[in-house]
Amino acid sequence: MAIQTQYFLLLSAAVFCIGVYGILTRRNALVFLMSVELMLNAANINLVAFSFHHGNLTGQVFSLFTMALAAAEVAIGIGIVLVLYRNFEDIDVTKAATMRW
Amino acid sequence: MVVDIAGFQVADWVALVPSLILGVTAMLLFIVDSIEPRPGTSSNTVLAGLSTLGALGAFLVAGYFLVLGVGQPRGTGAVDLFNGQLVVDGMSLFFVVIVGSVTALVTLASYDYLEGQEYQAEYYGLVIMAATGMSLMASANSLATIFVSLELSSLPSYALVAFLKKNRGSVEGGLKYLLVGALSSSVLVYGISLVYAASGSLQLNAVADALAGGSSVPVGILGVGIIMVLLGFAFKTASVPFHFWAPEAYEGAPAPVSAFLSSASKAAGFVVAFRVFLTAFPEVGGLAGGDPMVDWVTAVTVLAVVTMTVGNFAAATQEKVKRMLAYSSVGHAGYALIGLAALNAPDQGFVLGASMMHLLVYGFMNTGAFLFIALTEHWGIGRTFQDFNGLSTQAPLACAAMTVFLFSLAGLPIGGGFISKLYLLAATAQAGSWLLGAALIVNSALSLFYYSRVVKAMWIEDPSADLEVDSYPSSLYAAVVIAAFVTFALLPAFGLLSPSAFDAASVLFG
Amino acid sequence: MAGAFDFVPAIAALPLLAFVVSLFAGQYMPKRGAEAGILATAGSLVLSIWTALTVAGITGSATSYNENLYTWVAGVADGAVTLRLGVLVDPLTALMLVIVSLIALLVHVFSLGYMNDEGETGLPRYYAGLGLFTASMLAFVFSNNLLMAFMFFELVGLCSYLLIGFWFREDGPPSAAKKAFLVTRFGDYFFLIGVVGVFATFGTGLFAPITEGGTVVAESFPQMAEHALEDGESFFGYSAQTWITILGMLVLGGVVGKSAQFPLHTWLPDAMEGPTPVSALIHAATMVAAGVYLVARMYGFYLLSPTALAVIALIGGFTALFAATMGVVKQELKQVLAYSTISQYGYMMLALGSGGYVAAVFHLTTHAIFKALLFLGAGSVIIAMHHNENMWDMGGLKDRMPVTYWTFLSGSLALAGIVPFAGFWSKDEVLFEALIHGFGSTGTLGTMFLVAYAMGLLAVFFTGFYTFRMVYLTFHGDARTDVARDPEPVGWNVKGPLSVLGIGAATVGLINMKPIADLTGLHIDFLHKWLLGPEEGGWPALTSTGLHHYEELMHNVAGIDPAYPLGETTTLLVSALVSLSLALAGVLVARSLYNEPEPVEHTDKLGGAKTLLMHNYYQDEYQVWLAQGVTVPLARAADKFDQGVVDGVVNGISSVSLFTGSRFRRIQSGVVTNYAALMTLSLVLLLVVFVVLGGGV
């Protein structure tokens, strides 16, 4: 017997919240990006689970797109983190706060 | 599949030509750059010319299609492509017109702005790539294509904001844009996954069909999904509460990029929001009558009012002109949201059409205003209001253009912004939403205050002794003047364009 | 075939063209723009005469004309007011057109002598002003509705301002111009409210109904008011009678200001700072007549309100006497004439108020002629005296400038009301009408008329006195200064207009010799017949501005009827004799006091009254006090309110906004983690509000 879908929902929600928690508490830009990855993967869990639930492949296929885009995002992100380090000598996201108000 | 365009029987993908032009242009830029023997030596003229031509081509073809009736009831009817993953209709063409024109102005202006900068080919490539993404957003008809095209426009934008690698402001703006964007896109994709969970489909019409069932729909999951999707789009349109990136990104970015993002990117975000909420969720929101399952219309109303207010009030107290414009851009997102908020009006097509027209006018006046800032950055003038003192003594033409932009943004009858705001006000009146109407009026009045500060500085204050403008960059000037002319011309010509907007909008309401 | 009526707009358009030509091309012309003005006014005169002949039925069949020519604000909704420009021509219009264009032509010619020959600069501006004035005045005269009349009424006021201040580099003229502008504007303010009131009440400002093929297509407001009165309607909570009175009094505000009636007469003596031809044209013959003309134009409206009539009569009678007494002590030639003008317009108001429509129009006509004459004569004297206006420096000019003397004498006899000069006939008729209507009308109205009559009668004596005091001091006796002994000669362009007007002043009274007509049974009361029209049909039926209609209204609505305490003929003769003997008495007293070689001032005999009269009854002083003592503090208080309360609220709102703005921007802390926190927070908030509380879960 298959696991009921609400458990997948709970799992994905938990992963999503862990991701949010990471974003809110960690200052390291790389950890920030990793937390975002967690949130995206939480969505992937949903997509795959409900793809199974609904009996179509749309969700599974879309999760592949999501992964690819997440990778692209990280690629850009790492590039920006690199220039961040060059300009601010740090990758603490709270340090880059010259513009405000 | 064959459609009839101007009497020719052509394959249906021809309707997608405006987006294809942009995509091909991006590829051409890469090719041009890669056949140069040494990296980074490609001619600025070639690159800027090619980009401008591509953007202009997309703009012209989209406009021509709009005139021919492609994708519209009087012509071919909406053209579905790839099993409904993409659709070409009046609204998509209308927004490609906006994106194309803004992109053309921005690339034209960038020619002077990038003089002497490194990585020019990458810059133009990224701009056109992002524009391609935006034009696809206008056509995207499935949550999957929406997400992909949205990312296609977002990812180059992050890099563009951080383009000035040795400028701390640019890098900081890019970082914040990236981080907020990453968070937002994960919220969006999670929302999409929940909508998929509730409906079992990603294609918008199929989602609508699945949700029309009623009792079997898991409303809780759907509600969370819809709100998260809404916030995902709020990021793209720089609406509260996902607007936090905007002031910093616009302030830090090279001014042409700010112009591009605040005009084209915002418009693209709106077209996606319009299409998703009006194609997939009309019944959920109670637009087809009956009680709403998830009252997203009210949610948008709240966001619209808060966005207007936060944007304008924060803009009123800024010291830097560019940052003031950034906040004003947030405020204008609030105005455009009226198109989704005032939908209990009897004539929904009018409400949405008013919002579309506002985005069109806004595309020109806001782009122009930011390009004027690009001009001042080119001259090396400071960023505060005082630095603009007496600028009209040195550059009267540019200052006159800026005055047109600012007053039109404020809604004075000197440009199309007057009529579009008037239509928005009429839309709120039709919907009987006094809250939206009052917010619109109060915020417009307030905006007049801070816009006129710039005008006062330019025309009335005395210039400081060392204010000197040594060059008059022709392409930047041309872009500013064209934008000013169009902004002004949209005042009398508003009535020529508004029918196509209203028609395109009405179609979405069946 | 195009008749005279098709060219009526051209009567005003020609001087307007002259205005443009003088303004832009005047400096290239030999006479600095006078040519354009003379040609244009001559053209206007010809067209006016043609129009008058047409009205008389001599050159065409139609004898009246009323058309809307141009719509400048079209009312869209049902019952909305439409604003138009149009032309109304009836005998009153035709008469006034002839008078205005005749005097304008003569004044233009006279200006050649007074301005060009004296080597004035800025003449294109002068002739442009005259041209614009003439155009506006003529357009005012043929206006077919109240709003158009108001607009041109204001335009003539503007021209008056510009021309009084012609010598703007001196001290006096600019201040006099401002005073004239402000004082008349004060009255026009009420007029404007009245215009709005008329439009709001009746939806039209037409003086006379417009007919097409015998059917009325647009009603006039006097008629509508009449119907409303008959039907006992009420407007805005007032009975029709009261409301008509209110509207009439509001419009009367403009009339009192423009025609220099008490208490808004103070600007006219100061207006004499302007060039003398301007005084003749604007401040004697035509513009000042605009007020009186307006009352005559909408006489059918005023007749509906006995209260308004009584007020008009009393203002007129009082002003006639009041101004005449001030004229007695003045030392400057033009000042005497200015007060005389005020006084004479008082007579016209008296006539209108007491139901003497024909008498008022008659006196308007004769006064225009003889007062223009007197001013031009004074101008001639002023040229001769090298712009010294003090009569005590003159004397003995009779022999040195005979043309001026004889014409001036003709005008003076007319002004004093000595038979058979023009003023006698008209003034006599004014007083006669006031008298018989005073006896015939019931209740207080009759009493009011008699009071006004008494004041008017008394003024006749003073008129005779000050007129001949002026004549004797100026022309008789010995020359008291060197300049007077050897005055500068004047040219044909001065003598010509004087001669024309001099003959006119002697003869124009012949158009309506009512006493003679009544005595002999000859039908020589031409003006009466002119304004009466045919008994049946004709223009009175079309425009309802005929005398028959007015007499009916007088009888039916206002309750004004004639009564002859001594029988009709005897009353007429006694009235004429009384006024003539009073006038002669005035002349004789002046003769005994001043007709000597070395006249001396007798004003000291007046004692305290002299000071009072010299200071014009302290009219200026109390008005200045009103302005400075009452209005300024009031304005200060309003300013305080505006600055304190209104601006305070506005400033408060803006500082609250800016404060709020400065709080809002603090949200943008610059730290991206805070942004993420706020975004998450708002996401949760939205989820709670719209999903959990919205009944989703």
Question: How would the blueprint of this fold be written?
Answer:
The complex is a heterotrimer of chains A (101), B (510) and C (697).
Chain A: H1 5-25, H2 29-54, H3 58-88
Helix pairs in contact in A: 1-2, 2-3
Chain B: E1 2-5, E2 8-11, H1 17-35, H2 44-68, E3 79-81, E4 86-88, H3 90-113, H4 120-139, H5 143-161, H6 168-199, H7 204-211, H8 219-237, H9 245-252, H10 255-280, H11 296-316, H12 321-341, H13 348-379, H14 396-410, H15 417-431, H16 434-459, H17 474-508
Antiparallel strand pairs in B: 1-2, 3-4
Chain C: H1 8-25, H2 34-55, E1 65-73, E2 83-89, H3 91-116, H4 123-142, H5 146-164, H6 172-202, E3 210-212, E4 215-218, H7 221-231, E5 234-235, E6 238-239, H8 240-258, H9 267-270, H10 276-285, H11 287-297, H12 299-302, H13 306-327, H14 333-353, H15 357-384, H16 397-400, H17 402-416, H18 422-440, H19 443-475, H20 482-485, H21 492-507, H22 514-520, H23 526-532, H24 538-543, H25 547-558, H26 568-594, H27 608-614, H28 619-667, H29 672-692
Antiparallel strand pairs in C: 1-2, 3-4, 5-6
Task: Describe the structure using short key phrases.
heterotrimer, A: 101 residues, mainly alpha, 3 helices, B: 510 residues, two-stranded antiparallel sheet, 17 helices, 3% strand
Radius of gyration of chain C: 30 Å
What's the tally of helices of chain C? 29
Strand order of the largest sheet of chain B: 1-2
User: If strands are numbered along the chain, what order do they take across the biggest sheet of chain C?
Assistant: 1-2
Report the span from N to C terminus of chain B. 24 Å
Q: Which assembly state applies to the chains in this document?
A: heterotrimer
Shape of chain C: globular
Tell me what you see in this structure.
The complex is a heterotrimer of chains A (101), B (510) and C (697). Chain A has one domain (5-88): Orthogonal Bundle (Helix Hairpins), CATH 1.10.287. Chain A contains 3 helices and no strands. With 101 residues, chain A is mainly α. Chain A has helices at residues 5-25, 29-54, 58-88. Chain B has 17 helices and 4 strands. In chain B, the strands form 2 sheets. Chain B has a two-stranded antiparallel ribbon with strand order 1-2. Chain B has a two-stranded antiparallel ribbon with strand order 3-4. In chain B, helix 2 (44-68) packs parallel to helix 4 and helix 9 runs antiparallel to helix 10 (255-280). Chain B has a domain at 295-510. The two termini of chain B are 24 Å apart. Chain B has 510 residues and is mainly alpha-helical. The longest helix of chain B is centred in the C-terminal third of the chain and has 35 residues, at 474-508. By secondary structure, chain C is mainly α. Helix content of chain C is 71%, strand content 4%. In chain C, a hairpin with a 2-residue loop joins strand 5 and strand 6 (238-239). The radius of gyration of chain C is 30 Å and the shape is globular. Chains in contact: A-B, A-C, B-C. The interface between B and C is medium-sized, with 41 and 26 residues.
